[in-house]
Amino acid sequence: MTEQPTGADRRRGPFRAGDHVQLTDAKGRMHTIELVPGKQFHTHRGHIKHDDLIGAPDGTTVRNTTSVEYLAMRPLLSDYVMSMPRGAAVVYPKDAGQIITMADIFPGAAVVEAGVGSGALSMSLLRAIGDQGRLISIERREDFADIAKANARAFFGEDHPAWQVRIGDLQEELPLAVPEGSVDRVVLDMLAPWECLDAVNYALAPGGVLICYVATATQLSRVAEDIRAHGGFSEPAAWESMVRDWHLEGLAVRPAHRMHGHTGFLITTRRLAPGVTPPRRTRRPAKGSYDETQVSADETADDGVTKDTSDWEGADFGERPVSEKKIRRLRRAISAPPDEN
Ligand SMILES: C[S@@+](CC[C@H](N)C(=O)[O-])C[C@H]1O[C@@H](n2cnc3c(N)ncnc32)[C@H](O)[C@@H]1O
Predict the structure, then answer these.
(1) What are the structural domains, with CATH classification, of the chain?
(2) Could you tell me if residue 168 is left (phi over 0), alpha (psi between -120 and 50 degrees) or otherwise beta?
(3) Which pLDDT belongs to residue 288?
């Protein structure tokens, strides 16, 4: 039999010491525990012996000392990332899924990621590239990187062989970490991805994908414009995804009342071959779309005057201007007696 991919043996079979187990009570409350022989899990309503779970099949039920019943299951990766210790905010599973698919992360790929944060996205990337791939994750903060490494080790059961974590700023670290044009995919989850475009362009192979995850529309706009201005990338595409849970109870089958309305935006682009100029955009931008002095509240216009939001006009947001002639015609139409209409 061939050797199992890293972590696969921890995803199947009866519960073993060291496994994480998610306990769910009748009200849907969840607790995640790590199985340690001889240890007990206490709540205010009694306790469970870990030894009662070690050796039991995944998907079993267990009773505590006051007969409260819990369903015991191995957490999925999506459960695990939401309950693991966090230094920085994590990429939610819905966005990690989008990143894996839309950035075309494939088995054996050479991927660069920054920052690492708590390691949530790193784990999805590692699973997608597999043991034959290579993930270089760059993180400025050593303390965050330590948390991420511990989280991934706890999930995979060992240090993943495809993973290298480097401490530093991506702009300085990436050119030291990889030869030019050797990386298949780059994933950036950080405040200012536009600062990293030169380093990413150096590292990516022609045709390679850059995907950025940003939290605000201002970041999205900045990274899109800087990708275009760089000249070494294809026209970017951006989107967001919203996932709405559904309540399933008898005839009450409806969307849940609450949802995560916003997590972040994704934007992708691809590295052009060296010396290639992207085809000119045939769609003309709407008048005013590129007047930075007006759309950026904190930037100063050529005349040294900072424009505030009261100076903004519809054209600054891509609205089509309405001609004075059209307005006059409409006003005449609405003021004319009914029989003339
Ligand atoms: C939101 S967190 C990343 C979360 C991570 N993707 C996850 O799913 O757990 C952003 C991280 O980027 C790091 N960071 C920001 N700019 C960076 C840069 N230029 N180079 C390396 N790391 C950077 C920050 O220290 C922070 O830990």
Answers:
(1) 16-75 (3.10.330.20), 80-270 (3.40.50.150), 284-341 (no CATH)
(2) left
(3) 64
